[in-house]
Specification:
38% helix; three-stranded parallel β-sheet; Rossmann fold; alpha/beta; single chain; six-stranded mixed β-sheet
Length: 395
């Protein structure tokens, strides 16, 4: 019998191994306004900037300008800013899919200033996430087919990326879920709405707190796609106080938004579940630690992740592979399977997540050609093809 060891044991992950519940959890009656006030106070204590007066689209756009000027170390003239907004930030033809694509793929825009100078304008800094400014606002008012007022919104560099809807303790959490979808139909996606940038919704009734991606459909089964946050042993973190201390920790939230979400080829935004993030974090940690300790090629350099059927293993492996390609010392990432049909199936799934980042191989010669290419860094292949290639290289 093999003696297996845990792949990683560390506290330097956003999915925590240990977490001590807040001792001041209020389980008695609490009004919605009290819950909102306490939630914002907790966010402020965690380093969020609270802007009490930011409650309409004009003020939001002015704040975005300030934040993007700071992030990019530029100053827009008024006419330049209007042109930037109309050409890129809030094009009249943009829908929520277009704006989500800007968060994930097109977050850098080559802008020509009036003096002819061209500069890359970043919406987000994905390499150094601590540079992104996180703010919180409440009771934002926006009109569409109906006028709505949203509970709490988290802004990243001024853009509304997370919307939180709260219900007082004792009210069914599905009411907050249904309210989010009503807002989506009535006002969030109105013309010239920066709320089309929303990536994640959070709903809570104080005792149960969940998150889900903006592309979750409006139907009777869609509530099943909401997710609790959890520790590494999959123990759920449900109370809003604890959820805020963990999920809304700034580094954690920014990682979920910028690294642990996938916008796939079907224009569907997928937010990873805690156990998927935990697996990805530990794989990357193991790759890094094996490299640092010079343990390549030894049993200590590897490990295994166990997920059940239907748990999203392909998404987990793809995200781990994609993030591994960004490590300086990684040239290629192999995803190796042991059956031809699974090879084809996995290839299709990987290409759905990112059509331009993956190579398959129809035979050993094709595998060798893909190895020599410098564009695609992820290669999906079978054990048999890899074995044949290694034998051929040995000869």
């Amino acid at each position: 019998m093999n003696d297996y060891k845990a792949i990683a044991e560390s506290n330097n992950f956003i999915i925590l191994d240990k977490y001590t519940k807040c001792s001041q959890v209020n389980e008695s009656y609490q009004s919605e306004s009290d819950l909102e006030r306490e939630f914002i106070t907790d966010l402020k204590n965690q380093g969020y900037e609270y802007i009490p007066g930011l409650n309409n689209p004009e003020k939001m756009l002015a704040n975005v300008r300030r934040q993007l000027q700071t992030l990019n170390k530029v100053q827009f003239l008024d006419e330049e800013w209007l042109r930037f907004v109309e050409q890129y930030l809030d094009k009249p033809s943009d829908n929520s899919i277009d704006k989500t694509r800007k968060i994930h793929d097109d977050f850098i825009y080559d802008f020509v200033f009036d003096d002819g100078n061209i500069q890359n304008i970043y919406l987000l800094d994905k390499k150094n996430i601590a540079r992104n400014k996180v703010q919180v606002i409440k009771q934002f008012e926006q009109a569409g087919t109906q006028a709505n007022r949203y509970d709490v919104t988290v802004l990243v560099n001024g853009l509304p990326l997370v919307q939180i809807e709260l219900k007082k303790r004792g009210i069914a959490i599905r009411e907050a879920f249904n309210q989010v979808h009503r807002y989506s139909k009535e006002s969030l996606n109105a013309d010239n709405s920066l709320f089309k940038y929303l990536q994640i919704f959070v709903i809570s009734n104080g005792t149960d707190s969940r998150y889900f991606a903006n592309t979750t459909q409006r139907n009777k089964n869609s509530f099943d796609f909401t997710m609790n946050w959890a520790k590494s042993n999959n123990e759920l973190i449900k109370d809003l106080k604890d959820f805020t201390a963990t999920f809304f920790q700034k580094q954690t939230l920014l990682n979920v938004l910028l690294h642990y979400s996938v916008f796939d080829d079907n224009d569907t935004l997928l937010a990873m579940r805690p156990y998927q993030i935990a697996a990805t974090e530990r794989i990357l940690w193991k790759i890094n630690s094996a490299y640092q300790a010079k343990k390549w090629g030894t049993p200590d350099s590897g490990g295994y992740i166990w997920h059940t059927t239907g748990s999203g293993k392909t998404l987990t492996s793809f995200k781990a592979a994609r993030l591994a390609t960004e490590l300086d010392f990684i040239d290629k990432v192999f995803f190796v399977v042991d059956r031809k049909d699974l090879d084809f199936q996995t290839m299709k799934e990987y290409q759905r997540f990112s059509p331009d980042s993956v190579n398959g191989s129809e035979n050993t010669a094709g595998l060798k050609r893909n190895l020599d290419k410098e564009d695609n860094k992820i290669i999906v292949t079978t054990i048999q093809k890899l074995n044949n290639l290694m034998k051929g290289e040995g000869d």
